[in-house]
Amino acid sequence: MRHWSKSSLIILLALLLQFLWRSTPRTINDLFNFFSVIVVYLALRYGEIAGALSGTVAGLAQDALSLHVFGLAGLTKTGLGFGVGLAFRKLNLQPLGRQLLILFFACWFELLAWTGLAYLTFALKAPLWSGSFWLQPLTTALITGLLFHLTNRWTKE
Amino acid sequence: MALPLKERKAFRLFSLLILGHLVLISLQVPRSEDGTLFKQAFLAVLTPLQAAMSGMSREISGFWNNYLLWRDIREQNQKLRDEVFYLRQENILLKTVLQRLGEEAEIRERLKNLSSSLIVAAVVGSDAANIYKSIVINRGEKHKIKADMVVLDPQGNLVGRVINPVLAWTSRVQLITDDTSGVGAVTTGKGVSGVLRGDGHGRCYLDYVLVSSAEINVGEEVVTSGFDGIYPAGIPLGRVLAVSREGTLFRKIIIEPFFQLNGLVQVGVLAFDLKKF
Q1: SS3 annotation, B95-161
Q2: Domain-wise residue ranges, chain B
Q3: Which of A20, A22, A80 to mutate to test the interface with B (most CBs of B within 10 A)?
Q4: Same fold, B53-175+261-272 and B183-257
Q5: CA angle at residue B23 from B20 to B29, to 5 degrees?
Q6: Which site from A26, B34, B38, B215 is most exposed, i.e. has the minimal number of CB atoms within 10 Å?
Q7: Distance between CA B104 and CA B164 in Å, rounded?
Q8: Beta strands at B250-257 and B236-246: parallel, antiparallel or unpaired
Q9: Chain B interface disruption, residue of A67, A80, A110, most B CBs within 10 A
Q10: Which of B25, B54, B174 sits opposite A67 (nearest CB)?
Q11: pLDDT greater than 60 at residue B181
């Protein structure tokens, strides 16, 4: 129960950060997707079920607050949360370098799936020409990996 | 080898969620203008939350500012700002009306309604996928907001239009920088008209301007033409940033919009039917 309340608070925090983030310059703005960050973090912290459920909620939140197709980010972020949670449990991802690599590929795959599906099914364009948009998986992997590492240390201490 | 029970449950849940999303997406082909009921319900739950969060952040920063400044000076400043905001918006409205009307009596009668037709709203949310596509404002159906109403910034520059779904207390505004938006536009220099379309990344293009049309200079202003039937004529849109040739028929004209998304906290919604003016 505590996990759920914590997860809900983290999703609300993502909403707040996403709102505050809009006043940053466009190149920096494209670098971060706070919904992806919290989905990956919750998947690492609480496993694949929490990852999938938070992916659904955060993805639908992103869809509802955007002009994109409702359910698209929900679908890809559910996959992201479940995949990261499962990979973390099945593989030995304790070393930070390995963890960051897997997270990077997972986030990259999610971004590709989202842009690909949006384009193929509804001919919607993502800001593909923006270089910083494609750095989103890297920043998401770095932030969540380091955040997870730091909070692990903190709780151990 | 059979999977453990817990893992099977997780996979079942995952499959159910994915199936749910696929059904949800398939329901939107072709996309309806209002969005699905589920999206509307989700939005109705989320926007108050978003409004509360943004309100909270504003309150905190407001508290800090109040701490730093004298209270009475701040209040006076706010009053003056509001007054300037109203005056600017009214000025734009008056210009628009005067352009369209001829007889003095008719002007007087219709202008009576104008001052009460401007709804001031606060920006409480932005587009989660791309901030240059849309914003959420804290005025909705209860405040007589309807789809296609024109939205201006405090300086009277065009921000966009209200789009469906309009919820009870909040509504969404499609920005002119959205790549699916379209605004009838005309240059102030030689009156070359075209369609202003966003690039989805903070700037706009002036489309459908023939190579053979009159010259357009960098720095020239672009205003609404009123040909689209949504936006009234004469609202400032932006400035020409670059002009080049695109293919054999059309020019490629890049426009820097006047409205600034960074720091856009207050907007004005024109709550009247332009077709009546």
Answers
A1: HHHHHHCCCHHHHHHHHHHHHHHEEEEEEEEECCCCCCCEEEECCCHHHCCCCCCEEECCCCCEEEE
A2: 53-175+261-272, 183-257
A3: A22
A4: yes
A5: 150
A6: B215
A7: 36
A8: antiparallel
A9: A67
A10: B174
A11: yes
Nearest residue of B to residue A74, measured between CA atoms: B21
Q: Which residues in A lie closer than 8 A to residue B41 (C-beta atoms)?
A: none
Residue of A nearest to B31 (CA): A69
d(CA A73, CA A79): 10
- Residue B150's contacts (CB-CB under 8 Å, 6 or more residues apart) are B158, B161, B230, B231, B232, B235, B269, B270, B274
Q: Which of B10, B57, B178 sits opposite A49 (nearest CB)?
A: B10
For domain B183-257, give the CATH superfamily: Rod shape-determining protein MreC, domain 2 (2.40.10.350)
Q: Name the token pair of B154.
A: 């405090």
Identify which of A55, A64, A72 has the shortest CB distance to residue B42.
A64
CA distance B128 to chain A (A): 5
Q: What percent of chain A has pLDDT over 90?
A: 20
Tell me if A65 and B126 make a contact (CB, 8 A cut-off): yes
Tens digit of each residue's pLDDT (9 = 90 or more) over A100-151: 888 999 999 998 888 888 777 766 665 555 667 788 889 889 998 888 888 8
Hey, is A37 helix, strand or coil?
helix
Tokens encoding B135? 């914003």
The tally of CA atoms less than 13 A away on the side-chain side of residue B251 is 22
Contact between A78 and B18 using a beta-carbon 8 Å cutoff: yes
Both tokens of residue A15? Answer: 């909403």
SS3 (DSSP) at A122: helix
Q: Which two tokens stand for residue B271?
A: 């709550």
What pTM does this model have? Answer: 0.66
* B53-175+261-272 fold: Thrombin, subunit H (2.40.10)
**Does the distance separating the beta carbons of A69 and B25 come in below 8 Å?**
yes
Query: In this predicted structure, what is the pLDDT of residue B52?
Result: 78
**Tokens 């240390």, located at residue:** A153
Q: Which of A24, A56, A75 sits opposite B25 (nearest CB)?
A: A75
**Tens of pLDDT, residues B192-208:** 889 999 988 888 999 98
- Whether residue B109 is predicted with pLDDT greater than 80 in this model: the reply is no
